[in-house]
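pasting for ref
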Amino acid sequence: MPNWMTKCWKTRCSEFLLCSVLGLLLVLGLPLLPAIAQLPTSINLNLVPDLNQQGQQLLERGNPQAALERWQTAEQVYRQRGDQEGTIGAQLNQAKALQALGFYRRARTLLTQVAAAQRQQPDSSLKANTLLTLGNILRLIGEYETSHQVLIESLRIAQQIHSLPDIQAANLHLGNTLLAQQQIQSALTYFQQAATIAAPLQVSAQLRQLRLLQQLDRRSEATALVPQITTQLETLPPGQLAIYGRIELAELMGQITDSANRQTLSAAQLLMTAVQQAQQLGDRRGQSYAIGRLGHLYEQTHQWQEAQRLTQEALELARIINVPEILYQWQWQMGRILRSQGDLTAATQAYTEAVKTLQFLRNDLVAIGQDVQFSFRDRVEPVYRELVDLLLQPSATQAELKQARQVIESLQLAELNNFFREACLDAAARSIDEVDPTAAIIYPIILADRLEVILSLPGQPLRHYVTVLPQATIEAGIERMQNSLRQTSFAKERLAATQQIYQWLIQPIAAELKQHPLTTLVFVLDGALRSLPMAALHDGNQYLIQQYQIALAPSLRLLSPQRLQKEQIHALVGGLSAGTSSATPLPGVRQEVDEISRQISAQVLLDQSFTVTALKAQVQAAPFNVVHLASHGQFSSKAEDTYIQTWDGQLTINDLQSLLNQRSLTDINPIELLVLSACQTAEGDNRATLGMAGVAVRSGALSTLATLWTVNDASTAAFIAAFYKSLTQPNVSKAQAVQAAQLSLIQSPEFKHPFYWAPFILVGNWL
């Protein structure tokens, strides 16, 4: 095996463990690396092995920038020699350094070029390794299907040339990709196959296998695997594989409890060894991580002083080497430790610093999401929520209420960035008075032991009120209301469920709301509450929509306070009424399209004419300010599973952005209203409304009208007709038009059940 390839295997090991353990990596939006100095014309070509070795050592010591520079120089030397294999090897090493730096997009571009150049070459270990590295990068940026295809090809080549290390690596990374797609059992199978091969990645495969066994609650198998991994780690020389392998194993062992605390003691010993090895290698990043994890073990055993001392040491190291993706974790950990000791002021400061660090990392939280290295819900969301919990005490000041509101809005933005897998949202703080002086903004926040609500009224101080209930009880109430809105529910069941949520959210402020000249309630909903139609809340006499106009906002900071120009309404209408090979017929769509055409000026694309190409042509050709799409569609918590059905396929959320944002290149005003009729939230996905908010934001439209579930054709047509009839009237806002349409259905004997009118949700600008 060539020298560069041996180094690649070592790099692949350390790269995998680094990704697995470190949690957050810098991903996008960073400045380009400085160019290295020009290669002197008289360079000693015998230096290449030294450059490769230096690059490997630098990467293992946590200095990927310097490693990249060595490998860039090595590539130039190989090119001077005419050594194609050496050139490709140096490029693969560069891709690994770029990945460690978080430049995933640049790594993908480089690897795509290298892979394309090798397509026509005979199968080889070099070709398999190129595809393997490309597949890994594709996974990290969320392109799972392409990643899977590329890795399957890498595995095929490895099997064809009978290379066990290549077979092991392909199995390992296929497992990673399947795990990112939540295919747990299939991922475990690949990890088990990789772990049976005595090659460099065996420990990595065993660690991944252990994590999944614990996740599947197969504790006896997990416990039996720990000694095998421990033995393997003891045979490894000091380096990133040994350091981060010990850190990851210690983290997993900390989750296995026994009466004698043997696992905790063993985990502590692993971490102390990792600290020593990191010190010997001068790897301060690894040192910070190992010391911080050791501090976490002391936190778990309530040894607060030692936990605080170790966490502070890890925190200072992270500051010195400027690694915010580790720094925020120790700031968060310090906040937890201080809170546990009763020092709420210092704890709040530590949490505030952690959130500031996360805000700094906003551009870099983007490709992490549900990928195997990182769980947004486990390692980012709790930081925000725990800070809000500290701020919203009974004696909270105005400053603390304002900070709590800002933090919860920041969490909403972080969730959407995480959903998109790229930092696409820039937001500026806005006062409710400058948006709409007749609207109240309501922020419900679900915490572990209570439901907090912050109320913002025009010209008034913020106030908050609380319902003390366990989170499980709150979420059970939300689920009851969801179930009660089915078409076959009885009034007694439905009213009991909707009144319960009303009592939590609205009843404490109902009298106060009536004291102000309010017409609209705008909800910035949190967690499972996003799945509920606020219009259907009931006070015992009437629905909330019968008292107020209702709108949702992912964040008040995303709003553009602009009213629809009524005299210039011109709509592009796309619809799918006939069935296709992948979609059932929607016969009511034709009636819906006809109703729209009678109400407003519209260009219609129906059935065979409703294609992506036709949509693109129409968007570019005419200044539409309303886009109405009546077709099958789904909102999901994953951007890749959020789509709208067209005659020739699916329009994804990214396709929609590309389509509608073309207008910005032609000086056409943005879409003021996007209507998505017949779409629904994904069944069984309790965070699917992220997809609805995602479409609302990503489309570039100022407002989005969508449905939480698919409803009756006739009631939808009636709603749409009433909506556009009201919308065209002078001085009628979008929220008012939605209210008028919903009230018209409530007054209809046929459609008065909220199943028919409640799913219509206005997101974004309600003016």
